[in-house]
Amino acid sequence: MKEIKSRNIKVGYTPNILMDATAELTVALLLAASLLQHTQRQYYYKRITRLEQDNAWAPFWMCGQGLSGSNVGIVGFCRIGQEIAKDQQAQKIDSERVSFDELLSDLSTSDSDFVIVRIALSPEPANIFNEDEFMKPTSVFINTSREDVVDQNALISAK
């Protein structure tokens, strides 16, 4: 192991192994969330968190706003963030991108219909999404990055 360290050889380093799969999962979450109406997203949130056992019939559950004309913000323009943006360009979705190096305030989260977080692993960004950064009540927050970039209590109270 000393020889490996002295030669600066990375062991188990596979930087692109899940890049496409993670980008595709993120876009799938974006598409699925765009089809659900805001009221249905609240309904499923309550069911998933078992806050409410409501068996209401919802005939328009897949009649959401869609992505056409939506504002999608991508925070963290790493390789996966770039792949997500390519998918959005192919689908003619308007998106705004900021890298983590840029200030989060450069992204107008209050105007975003969807915010995707793809911040690369580093010790620095912890709880950068707090109560000040959450969007309007109808927005969708998709974090396929790291758990600790989000203040979980602020996310829960933002609804």
Automatic annotation (TrEMBL):
Domain annotation D-isomer specific 2-hydroxyacid dehydrogenase NAD-binding: ranges: 35-158
Keywords, comma-separated and alphabetical: Oxidoreductase
Secretion signal, residue range per the UniProt entry: none
GO molecular function, one term: glyoxylate reductase (NADPH) activity
Cited Pfam families: 2-Hacid_dh_C
One Gene Ontology cellular component: cytosol
Official protein name in the record: D-isomer specific 2-hydroxyacid dehydrogenase, NAD binding domain
Biological source species: Popillia japonica
Taxonomic classification: Eukaryota, Metazoa, Ecdysozoa, Arthropoda, Hexapoda
